[in-house]
Structures are given as C-alpha cells and as structure tokens.
Amino acid sequence: MSEQYIVSMQKWCEEILESYHHSYEELSRNHHKDTLENWKSELEIFQAQLNKDDRPDNKEVYERADRLFTQFEAYFDDENNEQESILRAHNEAGTVPIGGHTLPPLPYSYDALEPYIDREIMRLHHDKHHQSYVDGLNKAEKEMQKARQTNNFELIKHWEREAAFHGAGHYLHTIFWNVMSPNGGGMPSGMLMREINQTFGSFEKFKTHFSEAAKNVEAVGWAILVWAPRSRRLEILQAEKHQNLSQWDVIPLLTLDVWEHAYYLQYKNERKKYVENWWNVVNWREVERRFHEAQQLKWKPF
Predict the structure, then answer these.
(1) For residues 124 and 179, what is the distance between their CA atoms, to the nearest angstrom?
(2) Which tens digit of pLDDT belongs to each residue from 28-80?
(3) Phi then psi dihedrals of residue 151, to 5 deg
(4) CATH number listed for the domain at residues 190-294
(5) Contacts of 268 (CB under 8 A, 6+ apart)
(6) Are 233 and 195 in contact (CB under 8 A)?
(7) Taking Cα atoms as reference points, which of 215, 232, 213, 211 lies closest to residue 295?
(8) 22, 64, 58: which is closest to 39 by C-alpha?
(9) What is the C-alpha to C-alpha distance for residues 180 and 256, in angstroms, rounded to an integer?
(10) CATH number assigned to the domain with residue range 119-178, chosen from the 4 options 1.20.1250.20, 3.40.50.1580, 1.10.287.990, 3.40.50.300
(11) How big is the chain by its Cα radius of gyration, in Å?
(12) What is the phi/psi pair of residue 246, to 5°?
C-alpha cells in the first residue's frame, strides 16, 4: 500500500469528519444521535488504523471507506427525501411550507404608477423592503421549528415578535401591491359602494376618514380598510409598524403603506401629499373582489 494512498485516505477521513461536525445539528433532527455517534466512532477507528504499521490491505481500506461514505451520504438522502416529501405535501395542499414564503411579483412594471409613485421607490420598496420581510418571516419560522425540535424555547419571545413583525409586513405588502393599478382611481361600485355609504355616510366621508388615519399614523405604519365578520361591517384601522395597535378577527381589504420608504424619495416629509395622490392609483376592482369574498364570512354578532 503506497504512502500516497494512505495520506489521501487520511485526508479523506479528516474532510468527512469535518463535514460530519458541520452538519451534525442538521442531521440529528432526522436521525437518532446514537446512530450518528456509532458511525463517527467507526470512522475514527478506521482513521486510527490507517496510522498503524499493521493497517488493512488496499481492498479492505477501499471497502471500509466506501461503506462509511455510503452510510454518510444516505443520512443526507434520507433528510432530502423527507424534505422533498414535505414540500410535495405542501404543494399538493396549496400551502406554504415552514420558512418557505416567497416574494410575490409586482402585477405591473416599476414605473407603471408614475407620476404618483416613482419608479425607484417601487423598485426599492418591492425588491428590498418587502424581500426583507419575507426573509425575516422565513428565518423566524425556521427558528421556532428548531425550538420545537430541540425543546429549547429560550428565545421564543424574540422569534414570536420577529414572526409578527415580518409576517404582518409580508402579508400587508402582498395586498398593497394588488390594491394599486396604473388604471386605478375613481370610486368603487356595486356592493362595496353600498357598504361604504351605509357604514361611513358617503364615499367622501370614507375617503377623508381613511386619509386622516393614514396621515396621523404615529411614526410608521398603515391605514387599513377591513371587513369585520363579528360586527358585519367595514372599519378603518391604523397599524403602527405592521402589527401594533390593530385588531384581530378582521380581514384587510385596502391597505396604504405610510412607512417613509413608501414615499420619502419622492415626497420627502410631505406624507399628506403622498396620501392625496395615492387615491389616483387605488385598484377598486381588486378591493371589490376582496370584499365580495370577505363579506361571506360572518360570525355571530356581539
């Protein structure tokens, strides 16, 4: 047995052990720790025998290395197969897997809402800010999954907060892009218009109320028109950041982002002007569609 072959096998042992230690946490989620430790011990015994004078012959060295590597590869195959099964089940059910949220595409080009919302604002807002909420939500979900698997909930308060912030940011922005359109503006019609008149007195009164709510959000946040299944009517809410000072048990219909990244490059500190111009791009057809589906949900009123 040549010394060069022995050196290469020793290096292989070091590399595969390094890979084992690097991947241990990931592998131990799906394989019993004793199984992994037994494999590691067998590899270390093999590695030690390579340094002895009475080491095995070429054929035995090759066969043992091949068996060890095949076992190690199988651990990853099992995990990948399990992940593929999970993803396949989610796809068939039409659900998003844990930590699998994605950035939805804009339903129009970056410059489609000009002159009311600048191209560069739309690009940064969608590609950078919304993407960061998607990434943050995925990270929080995976960390909470890890907490369940390890039974270590030391940081659960932090990750629950992260999930609330980034999750609300992701979901509100997903609505926001669709309730705007280059062919927007004007007024709603049909059932939504009747409901607005009944709840707020008139469209103008609704528009004024919604605009003032948006202009007066403390620091950064949203104005949101919602359907409330419990009271069975429309309401206007504020949200600070994305998730604070709002209500549960309601369905958002129309959202207006008044974080500074939504308008500052174009309007500077003139939030009022941004809010007034925003009405020119409201996609009432999408709001009407959301209302038609939402108002079918009605809880017992209290």
Answers:
(1) 18
(2) 666 666 777 777 778 778 777 777 766 666 667 767 777 777 776 666 555 55
(3) 60, 30
(4) 3.55.40.20
(5) none
(6) yes
(7) 232
(8) 64
(9) 10
(10) 1.10.287.990
(11) 28
(12) -115, -160
